[in-house]
Here is the input.
Amino acid sequence: MQTNEKTIHVLSIDGGGIRGIIPAIILRALRERVGTDLHRVFDLIAGTSTGGIIACALATACHGGQPYQPGELLEFYLGNGPGIFRKHWYTPLRQLLRPKYSPVFLEGILQSAFGETRLSSALTPLLVSSYDLQSQTPFFFKSHKIARDSSYDWEVWKVARATSAAPTFFPPFHLQRGREDYALVDGGIFVNNPAMAAYAEARRLYPTHTDFLIVSIGTGDRRDDIRYARAKRWGLLCWAYQIVPVMMDSVSEAVDYELDSIIGSTVRSRHYRFQPELTIAANAMDNASPKNLENLQQQARAYLADVCQRLEDVATQLRQERGSAMPGIGYAADVAQA
Here is the structure.
């Protein structure tokens, strides 16, 4: 098989609820350095949960025929976060018996943000993760799959809702396609950091290419510091509060290790991980208090100051031609076999 020397550019965005503020700020800085929309420099954009929402916004023609800009996504989180994660006096009791939050506000703003846009409007291949409870299997929304099966042309707001249905926080999303029936939850339960899944998909999409640039954006490294003395007597109720963040964080860190090992063994492929440690911002995925919204922004800005040169190095590589020959929105026919 003849190989192509052009480098395939892959963007991956983690899950993390309101902490999506952090990748929005990092991506705004990256976009400023690249000097053009991110869908023009990435050959695949992938996301999970809040990262899935960001990926959909950056990679589809959902905003007056254009994608959203990262700065607009920052305003999206700041303006809507308190409504999505609105707490009431009965919230502690509610979460014992039902999902912590009603999905009504979330679904309303997703429908407002994405309108009637469909996945087929993707401007570059888009990969968004979810998990089907009924079949107990991972479920990936793939824009490039539509070329051979038009029934996969979902409305983008539904894709965003499915990928962000975090267990215990929101109810599953019911998605139907003919006789097929899915109960979808947050893809973060198995791939909160979708970088490895994105790399695998990119290898499948571009089989003649050997060089890959993986840019992986996190939502902040939690520091829960759960000690043995605290956890040794936990039963079902106590673990219910901790299992989701513990599981999602462990998956993310495992992906970092795996990708560094795999990419590090190749000659030209590179893996750049941007993940600040949370020191002033809250760990919780649903802390949308005014103070924490400001702390998340401060955390991201302080991190950017530390990685300024590294981000510039990535931007320099991205300013080169995309690895694929896909001319923007017309790419679908070229990947019909993916």
Q: What stands out?
A: The longest helix spans residues 236-264. The CA atoms of residues 175 and 324 lie 32 Å apart. Residues 327-338 have pLDDT under 50 and may be disordered. The first strand starts at residue 4 and ends at 13.
